[in-house]
């Protein structure tokens, strides 16, 4: 009955099909007559303006106030929409070459695909810098050339991070101190750091004591 009331025969469609937003494909309307833009998740729909079935969407009238329906998933399975495209729950996708994401419970979590490594200054590369390289997704390190003469505020003053033995600033870096090697009594902990006069990575040690050791029992006669 709805088809008989809304669908006219023969079909009269515009010569130029509509231009759809990103993520919305061209589909036939509910009458199977003209090409229209498929409605996306959460958008209003009706008999003529159909939802994007390729994304598993149907026109949901169940929670429609005042008779207005919206596009929703056919089943109760959650999904997520990213950049105009709908992904099913559990689906893994890449919104860009730098990220890999997973749709989960209506949201999504992402992990980076580019390494976030740290490059410390060296004599042959005193000013390392990450830059975007044309044709490559992940940024790469380059050695930037700068004037190595730094004006000092006071004569004889040495800026922070600058060693009098080095012609370049030292970017301090180091790991946390490890746990003490002994559970009781004197031991040592280690870390890797470049906080020395030559700005070189080295393993450093220091004494530590978690707690005193219990006294030994007296020897029996």
Automatic annotation (TrEMBL):
Keywords: Cell adhesion, Disulfide bond, Secreted, Signal. It comes from the Eukaryota. Residues 1-72 form the IGFBP N-terminal domain. GO terms for biological process: cell adhesion; positive regulation of cell differentiation; signal transduction. Residues 78-144 form the VWFC domain. It is found in: Secreted. Its main location: secreted. One of its GO terms (molecular function) is heparin binding. One of its GO terms (cellular component) is extracellular matrix. May play an important role in modulating bone turnover. Promotes the adhesion of osteoblast cells and inhibits the binding of fibrinogen to integrin receptors. In addition, inhibits osteocalcin production. Belongs to the CCN family. This is CCN family member 5. It comes from Probosciger aterrimus. The lineage of its organism: Eukaryota, Metazoa, Chordata, Craniata, Vertebrata.
């Amino acid at each position: 009955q709805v088809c008989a009331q809304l669908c006219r025969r023969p079909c009269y469609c515009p010569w130029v099909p509509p231009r759809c937003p990103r993520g919305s494909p061209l589909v036939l309307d509910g009458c199977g007559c003209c090409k229209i833009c498929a409605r996306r998740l959460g958008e209003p729909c009706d008999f003529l303006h159909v939802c994007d079935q390729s994304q598993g969407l149907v026109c949901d009238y169940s929670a429609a106030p005042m008779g207005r329906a919206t596009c929703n998933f056919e089943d109760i399975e959650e999904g997520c929409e990213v950049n105009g495209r709908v992904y099913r729950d559990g689906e893994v996708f890449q919104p860009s070459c730098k990220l890999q994401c997973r749709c989960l419970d209506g949201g999504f979590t992402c992990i980076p695909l580019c390494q976030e490594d740290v490059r410390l200054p060296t004599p042959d590369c005193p000013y390392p810098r990450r830059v975007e390289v044309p044709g490559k997704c992940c940024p790469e390190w380059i050695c930037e050339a700068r004037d190595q003469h730094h004006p000092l505020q006071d004569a004889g003053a040495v800026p922070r991070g600058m060693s009098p033995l080095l012609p370049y600033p030292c970017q301090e870096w180091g790991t946390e101190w490890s746990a003490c090697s002994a559970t009781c009594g004197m031991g040592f902990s280690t870390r890797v750091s470049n906080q020395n006069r030559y700005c070189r990575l080295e393993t450093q040690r220091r004494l530590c004591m978690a707690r005193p050791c219990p006294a030994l029992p007296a020897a029996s006669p």
